[in-house]
Amino acid sequence: MARRVSRRVIQVAITLFGLLLLTFFIGRVMPIDPVLAIVGPDADHSTYQQVYHQLGFDKPLWAQFGLYLNTLLHGDLGNALLTGKPVVDDILRVFPATLELATLAIIIGTGLGIPLGVLAAAKRNSLADYVVRIISLAGYSTPIFWVGMMGLLVFYAWLGWVGGAGRVELSLDGQVTSRSGLLLVDSLLEGNWTVFRNALNHLILPASLLGFHSMAYISRMTRSFMLAQLSQEFIITARVKGLNEWQVLWQHAFRNILVQLLTVVALAYGSLLEGAVLIETVFSWPGFGSYLTGSLLLGDMNAVMGCVLVVGVIFVMLNLLSDLLYQVFDPRTKA
């Protein structure tokens, strides 16, 4: 166990180091000048050179990367050019909004995708199978920003069923004390049902659209996994023994794909946490994706590197969690 843990820690460290190294050097060759973002286009040459020297851009790239790693090992991600605040504080401020959005989206995507995938596999080449496959194809291939704009046009502008952009109406902003950063949770803790209903009304549409996109992926993978299991001999044996179709599907075939589905759902959740940029842009959602996009366009490499590190840690932790859950659902993996 000690060797296994040590090996995994070394793998995680190498992965994160490689991710930081690649991101750092790509950021340095991008045609964006962060010095101009600080001093402005009207600054004189001496001011520009002073800031250029303060930021360490006059040093070789390997020296710049070494200085960044040194500050990182001391728990400092630097200050963001966009806000002037520590990157850690900015990430802690914006990440809960994305966490709230992605969590509801993965619940919707998993809750719909798994049953639809099982149904499509059980009714292979039937009308139900074709409908599920068409829905999955549409959800997986349709540009998410276009779906977001159409959703706002239909459900907000025309029908008025949901709230518009942002997390809450401007008149209700700031009425709930931020404890966890999750607006639904904080409003529940304070018993402010007005803010809770309004926040849920704003959250449901972007979360549903992201959930629809995840549902498409999860249902396709579930169908593929189930078809592989339904062709096995133990399924034929179960049917010969007189088990009904529900027992065959859920108690025999589905149990054998749980381990594979854990990885699929974990990766889908990780993608939502770091890849909801377009939906956050369309819905003016003040989350992690919007912050990363703004920092990247500004050339704020401190913020970009901090965000990349967070994304890497998220995927590594989700993979570790999947490995732990493997042993719960499939005890054979303990060996």
UniProtKB/TrEMBL annotation:
UniProt domain ABC transmembrane type-1: residue ranges: 95-326
The keyword Acyltransferase belongs to this UniProt entry's keyword annotation: no
InterPro entries per record: BPD_transp_1_N (IPR045621), MetI-like (IPR000515), MetI-like_sf (IPR035906)
Compartments it resides in: Cell inner membrane; Cell membrane
GO MF annotations, alphabetized: dipeptide transmembrane transporter activity
Membrane-spanning ranges: 101-122, 134-159, 199-218, 257-283, 303-326
One CC-aspect GO term: plasma membrane
Protein name in the entry: ABC transporter permease
Naturally occurring in which organism (per UniProt): Winslowiella iniecta
